Structure of Octanoyltransferase:
Amino acid sequence: MISPLIPQQLNAPPCLLLDWGLVPYSQAWEIQQKLVQERRDKPDLPDVLILLEHPPVYTLGLGAKLEFLKFDPSQTQSELHRVERGGEVTYHCPGQLVGYPILNLRRHQQDLHWYLRQLEEVLLGVLEVLGLKGSRVPGMTGVWVDGCKVGAIGIKVSRWITMHGFALNVCPDLAGFGQIVPCGIPDRPVGSLEQFIPGIEVDQVRSILVAEFARVFAVEIVRTQM
């Protein structure tokens, strides 16, 4: 069953929303790959936004350096994946809202820098709605509040179809970030919205993020199930 979630401007293209809870990283990765392949084969299929949380997991971008791990990957019990996105190592865990847009950029703008800035704009919009002053750092990708990185972005684009995406630290246990050099940036701390809005929970942020995504990408969000 498919139903509109957020009314948008007339004739806005649809974007299917898969709004899930806690999903293992490997399962979400497999689903992304399936959705991307379907859209390579049939470019007219609608865009998709997957929203979820992950159990604790570390991921490395395709060219990420192992030196940014503070543990031996051959000796750890931590879940670790090297994936096809750009960027260095990052950490996912409950309390972090992760978004995987599967977009055909031919419908939007065929420009990877534009796409990265648009994802940042979504996160900045969420922060503004919550009354927080978010910012960018020149030469870096992501979103900061008071010098703390609260939003990370890493993408893969193939034939102008996107995968991977963004992670917004709402109320995660940040201890896992202490085992890595997050995004390869040693001198800028990782933070969460909870540090600035005590008691905030992921479910309070979901609808705001969906609305901001619809606004920034000028799409009509349509809730669906797989």
